[in-house]
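Record type: ASSEMBLY
Status: queued
Input:
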Amino acid sequence: MTLAHRALFTWFIVLVFFILLCLRLEPRTNWNWFVTFTPLWIFDVIIIIYVIIKFIRKWRNLSRLTDLLFLYKWNIAGVLLTIASQVMICLRLEYPHQIPIYVTIAPLILLLSTAIFYVGSHLGKREGWLQ
Amino acid sequence: MFKLSELVRWLGLTEFEILVNLCGLLVFTITLAIKLSGENAGNSLGGLNGMQQEPTEDWFTIFSPLFFIDICNAYFCVIVGIRMYLDSDNKRKALHRFMWSTYFLVLIVIFKYLLCLKLSSKMGLEYSEVFSPIFVLLQLVAVRACQLPNSI
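Status: finished
Output:
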C-alpha cells in the first residue's frame, strides 16, 4: 500500500472512532467501552498483520530469530504497548472502581516514554546531538 | 505502519513538534492520573464521612501541560515561518507551512478549551460540539492525505 492509501485508511479509522466516542459520551447511549473502541481493535489487527508480513519478508535474509526481533524491536514494542494501553483504558472505563488508575496508565506512560525515546533518538541522530 | 518521516510528511509537523507534543502528553497523563486518584480517594472518604469532598484541582490546571506545549509549538512555528519566509526563495511554501501550523494549533487549542469547559460543567455543550474542531481538523488532514504522492 502506498503512503496515501495508508494515511486515508488511518484517517477513516480515527474518524469512525471519534464519532463512536462522541455518541458514547452522550448520556443517552450506554454501550460497552470495548464496542466503542472497535475501530481501534480493527486497526490493531491490521497493524499486527502488517508487522507479521514485514517479519516474514525479512525472515528469508536473517537466519536467527533474535536478530529479527532486535531489528523490529520498536515495531513490536509499539504494537504491544498500544494494545495493552487500549485494553487497560477500556477496562478502567468499564469497571471504574476495580482497577487502580496507576495500573491503567502504566502501559500508556511506557508507550509515551518509548515514543519520546524513539523520536528523540531519530532527531538526535539527524541533528548530530548523539555523536 | 508509518515511518516517522512519513508521519512528518502527512501531518505537516516536524519531528521536534512531535517530540514536544509527546512530552506534553506524558506530563498530562501523569497529572490526570493524580487528579483521578485524588478524586477516587476523596469520594471514598466523602462516602465514609457522609459528605462529598471538593475536587482539589481545576481541569484547566490539569490541562496546563497541553496548553503549555501549544504555546511552545506556536513560538516554534512563528520562528520557523519567519525564517522560511526570509531565507527561502519560495515564499508561497513558507506561507503554506505557516498557515497549516496555525490551523492545526488553533483547532487543537479550541478543542482543549471546550473540553475543559465541558468537564468543569461551565457550559452546557454537547460532546459532538466539543469534538467539532477535531472533525474539522480531520477533514484538513484528509485533504493532506489526498495530496500525498502515490509513488511512496
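Annotation: Chain A touches chain B through 36 residues (CB under 8 Å).
Annotation: Residues 32-127 of chain A form one domain.
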